[in-house]
């Protein structure tokens, strides 16, 4: 099945997970001995957020990109849209695919989901890469994040804004409820139970998540923190080559 904007070499699929439709795209790797890579987009985003990144990734790896619950062609969850609930949902789906081990990358709100995924499945996740992890736990109110997002718009690449706007307008409103559930969560709480090797990355010009927040996340698990020069919040869209290197070296 083909979807508009799907990267070359990928196929689209969907399945019923506990009564909710989950959609994803994937590319088979040429080396079946490598660990698959799971990419989780940010708030309201679809697989398109990683469209510029995937050509930079090694063709040897199997790559899967989900439409998170409530985004793209995936249905929202009935009970909760928190990062923990989404992580449990994605874990059920991943197990249904037969994948036993994976490295996981999450961007923005997707980084929160990825972290909780790793905590829920320490036997599954070997490496965890958190890109521009949001919401910033130092800001407990939604209006603070909306203001930060507005301030950072002019530091993003035009293609980031086009892609994000396109995805936002089709996202279910429940995604904002899930984001609100994460407000004020401490770095220790975000990464509680995570046993994977962790890398945290942030764009130097990011106004949505602060250096202090990303450093707190890294310090919570003794992880490395990377700063990408001349980059805003949309790291996978704006600096795909640098992000691919981060994933390779994680």
From TrEMBL:
The record's section on InterPro entries has: AB_hydrolase, AB_hydrolase_1, AB_hydrolase_fold
- Source organism's superkingdom? Bacteria
Q: What is this protein called?
A: AB hydrolase-1 domain-containing protein
Please give one Pfam family short name.
Abhydrolase_6
GO MF annotations, alphabetized:
catalytic activity
Chain ranges of the AB hydrolase-1 domain: 37-245
Source species, please? Flexivirga endophytica
């Amino acid at each position: 099945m083909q979807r508009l904007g799907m990267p070359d070499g990928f196929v689209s699929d969907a399945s019923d997970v506990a009564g909710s439709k989950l959609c994803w795209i994937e590319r088979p790797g040429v080396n079946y001995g490598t660990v698959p890579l799971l990419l989780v987009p940010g708030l309201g985003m679809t697989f398109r957020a990683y469209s510029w990144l995937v050509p930079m990734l090694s063709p040897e790896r199997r790559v899967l990109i989900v439409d998170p619950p409530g985004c793209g062609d995936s249905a929202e969850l009935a009970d909760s849209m928190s990062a923990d609930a989404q992580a449990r949902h994605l874990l059920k789906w991943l197990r249904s695919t037969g994948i036993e081990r994976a490295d996981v990358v999450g961007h923005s709100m997707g980084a929160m989901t990825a972290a909780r995924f790793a905590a829920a499945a320490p036997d599954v996740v070997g490496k965890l890469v958190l890109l521009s992890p949001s919401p910033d736990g130092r800001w407990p109110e939604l209006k603070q994040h909306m203001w930060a997002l507005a301030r950072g718009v002019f530091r993003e690449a035009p293609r980031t804004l086009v892609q994000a706007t396109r995805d936002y307008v089709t996202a279910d409103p429940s995604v904002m409820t899930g984001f609100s559930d994460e407000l004020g969560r401490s770095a220790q709480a975000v990464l509680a139970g995570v046993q994977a090797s962790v890398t945290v990355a942030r764009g130097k010009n990011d106004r949505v998540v602060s250096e202090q927040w990303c450093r707190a996340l890294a310090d919570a698990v003794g992880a490395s923190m990377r700063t990408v020069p001349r980059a805003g919040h949309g790291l996978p869209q704006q600096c795909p080559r640098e992000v691919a290197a981060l994933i390779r070296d994680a």
